[in-house]
Amino acid sequence: LIAGKIERRQRLTLDDGLKLLTEADLVQLGAWAHAERFRRFPKPEVTFVVDSNPNYTNVCDTDCTFCAFYRRPGDAGAYTLTAEELSEKVGRAASLGATRVLIQGGHNPDLDLDYYLRMISHLHEQHPQVDLHLFSAPEIRAIATYTNKSIAEILQVFWDAGLRTLPGGGAEILTDRVRRTISVKKGTPDEWIDVHRQAHRIGFTTTATMMYGHLETDAEKVEHLDRIRVLQDQTGGFFAFIPWSFKLGDTPLSATVKKQAGAGAYLRILALSRLYLDNFDHIQGSWFSEGKKTGQLSLHYGADDFGGTLIEENVLKNAQWVNETTTPEVVQIIQDAGFIPVERSSTYERLRDYPGPEPDSRFHQNFAGGAYARPG
């Protein structure tokens, strides 16, 4: 029954999603997702962005149980960068080819609105060639709270300052039970959704994310997908979905979870997201959070995008997860998977085309059938 729905491209229900996540053969699920990816994007291309993820502050009063990055106000090691210091980081990334910066930070109660506006203005002036992809939904809520303004007012001020996209961080798992347990001060699922809804109304495009592999149930993973699919029906403002697994580290949540989710769980969620999120264009695979080999496999499990090169990244590094790459290596990984690499902007404009895979690459794509086979 579900197979017929997939072949006819009928919308999946919550029950369908749960059955696929828990009962479907992984290879079959991947094949369905891979075929759907090629229905959406018939060309054998995989996009990526050259970017960097610096942070402007690690000061935060939200106490998420999974975070090893933040410091409480006044703690040793707490920092807040000036606009000039942040600009230096962006400049170094731009000199290495970055065309986008994804900048987020802790929820710092000591920062006023002028701090954020100066940051945006200075980065625009100093690095006009770099797209600014700034501030997650929980950050927007925190800034509104600390400055005694509404979320709509903060979003409008940032729009007027020149921001056009927002990252989808801070979603974790969009159910009340999970958020009450791992990030009770971060806002409810409805509040995360509401920030994105209001942003979409103004004109922002945003991403949606999921951090799984901790205390959530399988049903809650599917509920998360359903919540963002409903909002996408209403606004059309999401341009990509990015899942990643929770990383064990020196955090309270790690003491509870103990075992990290593996590659199979990641590929299953990625494939399901391609099928369930029928109103999302882009599903992003991750070399960074899941490792390069699993990231490469993600391109055969529904992903059409390979994320960013992450010239700088600090949040997972603080959880002892260090994974680095270069633009040439990303290009090679995509080619070795049997695809043509395309460098993109933050909003998926083509910036640079690369050659396709060599004849002896690991996988050869059967573009008509959406299947792949090993050469020889």
Task: Strand order, main sheet: write it out.
Answer: 9-1-10-11
Q: Treating each run of at least 4 consecutive H or I residues as one helix, how many helices?
A: 15
Proportion of helical residues? 40-55%
> Mean pLDDT score, rounded?
91
H/E topology pattern: HHHEEHEHEHHEHHEHEHHEHHEHEEEE
Number of E-state strands: 13
Give the DSSP E fraction (strand runs of 2 or more residues).
5-15%
Describe this structure as you would to a colleague.
- The chain has 376 residues and is α/β, with parallel strands linked by helices.
- It has 15 helices and 13 strands.
- The strands form four sheets. The protein has a four-stranded mixed sheet, covered by helices on one side. Strands 5-6-7-8 form a four-stranded parallel sheet. Strands 2-3-4 form a three-stranded parallel sheet, with helices on one face.
- Strand 12 and strand 13 form a beta hairpin.
- Helix 3 (26-40) packs across helix 12 (263-276) and helix 7 packs parallel to helix 9.
- The two termini are 36 Å apart.
- Residues 313-323 and 364-376 have low confidence and may be disordered.
List keywords for this structure.
13 strands; alpha/beta; 376 residues; disordered C terminus; 15 helices
Indicate the topology.
Blueprint: H1 2-8, H2 14-23, H3 26-40, E1 45-49, E2 51-52, H4 83-95, E3 100-103, H5 113-126, E4 131-134, H6 137-146, H7 151-160, E5 165-166, H8 176-182, H9 189-202, E6 205-212, H10 218-235, E7 238-245, H11 252-257, H12 263-276, E8 282-283, H13 287-290, H14 292-298, E9 305-308, H15 327-336, E10 340-344, E11 350-353, E12 364-366, E13 371-373
Parallel strand pairs: 1-9, 1-10, 2-3, 3-4, 5-6, 6-7, 7-8
Antiparallel strand pairs: 10-11, 12-13
Helix pairs in contact: 2-10, 3-12, 4-5, 6-7, 6-9, 7-9, 9-10
